[in-house]
């Protein structure tokens, strides 16, 4: 597409300066899934699913590093902090190595393993990172790689199978001038660390032919974990049992004078004399599996699979402190919804084929500026599984959450929970799909949406009476799709929208868009595939959105269509959608031709945010002819190109992107237009030296004329507002930057009756 506005060119570079992070983005990551820990004298470093954090042992300060700082992990599998170089190295399942340099303030993306063509993609995982004399040894699924911390470059790669073949290496260590490598099928292999020809597989020999899972050097002895759930130490002549954990050992960590051994339900800590100091089997009131652990002096840090990082001490094992940065319950958020005081998030989902299995049992999260992230635990949700979409009552702010298996949840202001299902909604209420077994209950509700009269509409998939409404008085009503759509008992539905005429526009999996209005004698119109039937490129419709000019934007599995006016439903019996034609390199092209569109959101300036499967998100001009931004994980802080949901805060313009690897937001400027000019606000003000962003003028009414002049009255910028906020790039009509000084901002309503004058100071 032409006219692409390149915004985050800094993110194209391999080495990313995070000291100058872009202030237009904000992250809301979960830190509950701890992948690895690394100790130092004054801090403990933790790798979560795709973000880092550290705790200062003296001050207690928690510091996070996320995609906002340029840290964009794939799936973290190993982590190590080098105290000598003040660098944190993070390995990923695809071979990506991230190097965070706290002194230089950079994140280095090292892609040598990722780009190795001779190694299969599924054999590039980094399992462990071990440091020795300025180099780190990466234990990978194919062998061992060496990375030089002094120059931040890869060195040799060792394929250490008996015939030089690839072999999975779980962990390495150096002891008495030998490097030891634990392999998956060839036992522990070793070679002299000073040997200049370690790339020659014949230089490696078998140290022990058993089946081992990890190895460390502790108190000048080798300590290794065996696949038989036992930890051994090598006495110089043979391995001697130290501890039988009774379950697979998933983490072996030696630091200073402490040895820490971790299984899913056990953490053991030993001192320098191999005497047991601690045995942890449970964190009080925390139900989770352990994933890793480390010990610094008397402080023990335990990472969990889904509850974050906890700290205790060998002197008081009954007291635990949660060291987890505040965040949502998990990163893979399926739907977010902005209420006046909260941002709500749910994690249940379904596949592209609307299959909710395996059923999810997750918390519901909400965020506020005052309290951060809190959760309603699954144990309080009355067994409702696979929670997919959120609706907010405009009258009471009660929250309604659809379950794609259990019905509909209602959550009031005190977080009291009610579950609506087939038992309490009457004969016209919610229904289970019919599989011939009355004892099997499966109620697939989706997309709860309120109309202007306070009635809550939703879909109930795979039944004939698929359109349901809980009226404002609490009564339920159903509307059948039998004889309207093809095989409604086999159809599923995404989130509907309701227009100003109370017409419901329902995206379906097999029948295109279903338009329905009960106030017009239960009128239905189907917008389907093919000319004369609706002109959709595919009957699989994933999302619909109504813009500020009452146009219906339709996202399908194979492209985009637009209905010019939703009012046509009232007077016409058929509706045809149109594609958007753009010019690309002088040729006419269909916008998003054959691309799968997951979500569309309309901002206060009538611009469209469009999420494309595996391609990030586009911001389009109101008519779709111009691409303003195209954000991907390669050129922006998006942690993934797979966006599940887009939500816009109409008051602030903040745009939330829920991805399969975390939630981030872009501080947009398109807010709802104000009723008058009484609250016009200019920011930043003053504009200080070095600021590269734009000046925002918010609190505008729609179609206001805005003129900016210097103090002598010379015009430097003029525009008309669409929505509640405009931006000025501090240039004179888009050319050169204006000089230091005070600039006058004159604002007038379209009819000239209401005016406002503001000032902004610019300091170069």
UniProtKB/TrEMBL annotation:
Database matches in NCBIfam families: Por_Secre_tail
UniProt entry tagged with the keyword Signal: yes
Assigned keywords, A-Z: Signal
Organism: Flavobacterium suncheonense GH29-5 = DSM 17707
Domain of life: Bacteria
Claim: Signal is one of the keywords in the record: yes
Name of the protein this chain belongs to: ABC transporter substrate-binding protein
A Pfam family the protein falls into: Reg_prop
Ranges for domain PorZ N-terminal beta-propeller: 44-205
Taxonomic classification: Bacteria, Pseudomonadati, Bacteroidota, Flavobacteriia, Flavobacteriales
SUPFAM superfamilies: NHL repeat, Quinoprotein alcohol dehydrogenase-like
């Amino acid at each position: 597409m032409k006219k692409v506005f390149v915004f985050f060119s800094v993110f194209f570079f391999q080495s990313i300066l995070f000291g100058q992070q872009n202030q237009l983005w904000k992250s809301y990551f979960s830190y509950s899934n701890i992948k690895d820990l690394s100790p130092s004298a004054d801090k403990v470093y933790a790798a979560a699913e795709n973000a880092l954090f550290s705790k200062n042992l003296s001050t207690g300060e928690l510091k996070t590093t996320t995609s906002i700082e340029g840290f964009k992990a794939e799936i973290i599998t190993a982590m190590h902090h080098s105290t000598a170089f003040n660098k944190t190295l993070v390995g990923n399942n695809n071979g990506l190595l991230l190097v965070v340099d706290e002194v230089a303030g950079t994140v280095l993306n090292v892609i040598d393993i990722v780009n190795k063509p001779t190694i299969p993609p599924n054999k590039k995982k980094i399992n462990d990172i071990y440091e020795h004399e300025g180099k780190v040894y990466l234990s990978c699924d194919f062998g061992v790689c060496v990375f030089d911390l002094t120059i931040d470059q890869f060195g040799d790669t060792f394929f250490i199978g008996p015939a030089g073949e690839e072999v999975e290496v779980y962990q390495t260590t150096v002891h008495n001038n030998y490097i030891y490598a634990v392999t998956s099928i060839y036992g522990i292999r070793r070679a002299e660390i000073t040997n200049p020809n370690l790339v020659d597989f014949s230089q490696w020999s078998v140290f022990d032919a058993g089946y081992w899972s990890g190895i460390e050097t502790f108190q000048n002895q080798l300590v290794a974990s065996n696949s038989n759930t036992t930890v051994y130490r090598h006495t110089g002549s043979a391995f001697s049992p130290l501890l039988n954990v009774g379950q697979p050992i998933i983490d072996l960590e030696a630091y200073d004078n402490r040895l820490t051994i971790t299984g899913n339900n056990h953490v053991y800590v030993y001192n320098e004399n191999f005497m047991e100091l601690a045995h942890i089997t449970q964190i009080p009131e925390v139900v989770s599996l352990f994933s890793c652990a480390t010990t610094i002096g008397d402080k023990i840090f335990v990472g969990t699979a889904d509850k974050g990082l906890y700290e205790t001490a060998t002197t008081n094992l009954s007291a635990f402190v949660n060291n987890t940065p505040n965040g949502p319950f998990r990163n893979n958020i399926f739907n977010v919804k902005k209420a006046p005081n909260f941002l709500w998030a749910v994690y249940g989902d379904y596949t592209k084929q609307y299959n909710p299995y395996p059923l999810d049992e997750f918390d519901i999260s909400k965020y506020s500026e005052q309290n951060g992230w809190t959760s309603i635990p699954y144990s309080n949700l009355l067994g409702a599984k696979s929670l997919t979409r959120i609706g907010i009552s405009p009258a009471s702010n009660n929250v309604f959450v659809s379950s794609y298996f259990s019905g509909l949840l209602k959550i009031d202001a005190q977080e009291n929970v009610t579950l609506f299902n087939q038992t309490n909604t009457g004969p016209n209420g919610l229904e289970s799909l019919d599989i011939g077994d009355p004892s099997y209950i499966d109620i697939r509700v989706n997309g709860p949406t309120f109309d202007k009269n306070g009635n809550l509409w939703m879909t109930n998939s795979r039944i004939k009476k698929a359109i349901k409404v809980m009226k404002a008085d609490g009564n339920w009503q159903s509307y059948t799709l039998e004889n309207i759509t093809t095989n409604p008992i086999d159809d599923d539905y995404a989130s509907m929208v309701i227009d100003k005429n109370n017409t419901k526009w329902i995206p379906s999996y097999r029948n295109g868009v279903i338009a329905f209005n009960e106030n017009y004698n239960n009128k239905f119109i189907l917008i389907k595939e093919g000319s004369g039937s609706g002109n959709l490129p595919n009957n699989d419709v994933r999302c619909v959105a109504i813009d500020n000019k009452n146009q219906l934007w339709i996202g399908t599995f194979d492209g985009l269509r637009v209905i010019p006016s939703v009012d046509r439903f009232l007077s016409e019996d058929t509706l045809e959608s149109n594609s958007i034609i753009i010019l690309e390199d002088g040729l006419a092209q269909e916008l998003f031709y054959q691309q799968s569109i997951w979500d569309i959101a309309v901002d206060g300036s009538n611009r469209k945010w469009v999420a494309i499967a595996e391609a990030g998100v586009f911001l389009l001009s109101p008519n779709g002819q111009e691409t303003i931004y195209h954000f991907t994980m390669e050129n922006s802080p998006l942690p993934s190109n797979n966006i599940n949901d887009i939500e816009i805060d109409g008051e602030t313009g903040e745009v939330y992107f829920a991805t399969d690897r975390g939630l981030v937001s872009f501080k947009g400027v398109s807010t709802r237009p104000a009723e008058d000019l009484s609250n016009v606000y200019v920011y930043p003000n003053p504009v200080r030296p070095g600021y590269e962003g734009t000046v925002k003028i918010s609190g505008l009414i729609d179609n206001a004329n805005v003129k900016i002049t210097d103090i002598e009255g010379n015009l430097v910028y003029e525009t008309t507002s669409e929505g509640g906020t405009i931006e000025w790039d501090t240039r004179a009509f888009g050319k050169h930057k204006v000089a230091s000084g005070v600039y006058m901002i004159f604002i007038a309503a379209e009819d000239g009756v209401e005016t406002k004058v503001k000032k902004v100071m610019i300091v170069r």
